[in-house]
Write a structure and sequence with these properties.
By secondary structure, the protein is mainly alpha-helical. It has one domain (2-107). 62% of the residues lie in helices and 0% in strands. It is built from six helices and no strands. The protein has helices at 2-9, 31-42, 48-58, 60-83, 89-94, 96-102. The two termini are 21 Å apart.
Length: 110
C-alpha cells in the first residue's frame, strides 16, 4: 500500500507486478536497478554491481535510503512473523486487488 500511494504522490503509475515478474517494468524511475538491489540483498547475492548502479544513477544518498528501506521492511516482517501477528481486517480489505494481482494469498495461513 505504501508504494502504491507514494507513487501517486510523485505522479508515477507503479506496476506492482514488477515485484514478482521481472519481465514487467515497474513504472518507477530506476525501478529495475532498485529491484535488482533488493533481490541481491535478500538472496545473499553479490550486491556490489547494484550498489554501483544506484550510486551512479541516483547518488550515494539514494543507496543509503534504499538500504534503510530494505532493512526496515525486513525488520517489520520478522517482528510480525515472530509474534504471529495477523494481517488486520482493514489491511486485508484494502489490499485485495494487490494480493490477487501478485498471487500473495498463497502465503496466508489463517
Amino acid at each position: 500500500m505504501m508504494l502504491r500511494e507514494s507513487s501517486k504522490t510523485f505522479g508515477y503509475e507503479a506496476d506492482l507486478r514488477a515485484v514478482t515478474d521481472p519481465s514487467v517494468g515497474s513504472g518507477i524511475p530506476s525501478g529495475d536497478i532498485l529491484i535488482g538491489f533488493v533481490d541481491a540483498v535478500l538472496s545473499d547475492g553479490d550486491s556490489s554491481a547494484h550498489r554501483g548502479s544506484i550510486v551512479g544513477q541516483m547518488g550515494e544518498d539514494a543507496l543509503v535510503e534504499t538500504a534503510g528501506v530494505i532493512g526496515n521492511f525486513s525488520m517489520m516482517n520478522r517482528i510480525a512473523d515472530a509474534t504471529g501477528m495477523p494481517v488486520g481486517k482493514g489491511s486485508l480489505a484494502q489490499t485485495v486487488d494487490v494480493r490477487e494481482l501478485l498471487g500473495l494469498d498463497r502465503f496466508r495461513h489463517d
